[in-house]
Amino acid sequence: MMSHFGACLCGTVTFEVNGNFDSFYLCHCKHCQKDTGSSYAANLFSQAAKIHWKSGHDHVTSFMLPDSRHNKSFCNLCGSAVPSTQIPGLLVVPAGCLDSEVDVLPTAQIFTSSRAIWEAAIDKLPKFDLLPD
Q: Which UniProt keywords are listed (predicted)?
């Protein structure tokens, strides 16, 4: 059984996930664009993995968009995304909040019909290892 560790940006919320991920989706829907402030959300899903909140669980706030299955959990101090258990029987882990390596490649890109227009140019842009001068 795999174990993964992660935290929010400020380090208040820390957690351990025990178990394997079933899928890893890059979601381009408008809801994910709004709640990430980016062109897509990268989320890992598991029906069997269990989460153990190591610290800061009292700082986790969850939001469920009315009339949808869209939800987000986040640290109420720094605002960064943390795992969500809002859909019964499903653990959703934002890939970027993990500190341990993810050994799963993305399963698929979903809701690509909503893809941000600027994504088409990403592969053609200059690349820098650090912030350019």
A: Lyase, Metal-binding, Zinc
